[in-house]
Specification:
The chain has 165 residues and is an alpha+beta fold. It has one domain: Histidine kinase-like ATPase, C-terminal domain (Heat Shock Protein 90), CATH 3.30.565.10. The protein contains three helices and five strands, in the order βααββαββ. Strands 1-2-3-5-4 form a five-stranded antiparallel beta sheet, covered by helices on one side. β4 and β5 form a beta hairpin. It is globular. The C terminus is likely disordered.
Length: 165
Amino acid sequence: MDVHRLWSHETSLAAEASSAAQARAFVSQHLLDHDMAHLVDDIKVVVSELATNAMAHARTPFSVILCAFDGTVVLEVSDASRAEPALVAARSLDTSGRGVAIVQALSRDWGVLPRASGGKSVWAEFDSTARPRPPLGRKPGRPTHPSGNAPDPKPRGGFRRSRAS
């Protein structure tokens, strides 16, 4: 089977605090340019986690590649470290250790590839044909009130008119 790349974009970023925000802006802009707004939120979270891992653990400049194939968008973050990310069981009060679990939860598949030049590429794959998920805590098709609560199907309170005899 022949795999046809539809488009691809790449950027290189320094290992500095502002780079995670730059990576999020990079993927957002290109997904919107390709009419894939339904993937922006998930891919922004994943690129943020992978960029943060590259900065915190590799401490080297890193690259972000976003590309599309038929029905699939692939995000790849490459850095100069050979150390692979690991899925750990973070405890409720831990302030780190959830990144790989988040990548696993939001992507269709993910993995790590060693680079011939040294280092690694961490990739995550997303279904570009999937319908957006409803926000957490909300059932599909059920409208919400601006307060964030669902409207009450049975009005309460109020007053009753009585006829004077």
